[in-house]
């Protein structure tokens, strides 16, 4: 909470360097002034797991903060939006004429996304995500009711920080090793000790994956490639089938699947091409082995989408390796050096580089068009059943 976190602006807008505690307190004060009561304030999800975990804990992608509020009145959502944008003005550097900056301009400059959910299941919550160039966005969630707030036991933790905010308000003495407020953490998984054991030992477990939007499929494959393994008590094959079924219910159209998958790759594997390829091969395997709810051509369309994305990553790595190879030859010629051996991957001039990967995804020859395919829903290189 004491760390300075940058909120990056688009265009000519400057970066806002804010302490998390100052941002939270400013938002809370503005909400209170507007008549919006804040029940509690919590650190949620991956960042809470990171704080509670040991050295084995997964890295977090976003700083997920939850404000418990009453959203029974739709007007409260507009108040919340205005309060958050109004707080950003206060963090602008000195010398900027703040009176001339509209809330619309602030939204375009600093807000990554805004989400509002009010559905028939009773969910009422809103999200305002503040931009960060390395994708560690500050996500402010304003929650009245949310039926499902976690995907897996390892990200089910919430740290209740009301006592910490009170400490900042009333204490003039700084926090020390022997002087600090008591902080309470809980697990929405239901069993804190079991969830913490899963976190400490990098185990995968969940309850009722069919209740999760997207089934938790993308997060599950992410955990697998980061070294997590299914807990012993989990029927992994049944769980994978539930996850795949719910994913294809929520994202039934191939364009929706592409949009969701591409956004997930950008947010979770930005710049890590090797891990991205391993993730796509893992996702391909799970979808291939555990999808039972799709027609034949729909299943092949999805598998082909995953394969195409993996192939793009693979070829990008090949091009980088080729460039490095050329640079080494140029270095050899310029400096009159003799290079004995160079080890790198996955580029292989003999064409045997497919052995570099574990799961047998379709080869690049799948991109050759076959005239015999006649199904209008399938790519021309896949045979329709």
TrEMBL record:
Pfam families: NTP_transf_7
Single GO biological process annotation from the record: mRNA stabilization
Catalysed conversion reaction: RNA(n) + ATP = RNA(n)-3'-adenine ribonucleotide + diphosphate
Keyword Transferase: yes
UniProt xrefs under SMART domains: DUF1693 (SM01153)
Top-level taxon of origin: Eukaryota
Enzyme Commission designation: 2.7.7.19
Ranges in coiled-coil conformation: none
Family statement: Belongs to the TENT family.
Protein name: polynucleotide adenylyltransferase
Native species: Biomphalaria pfeifferi
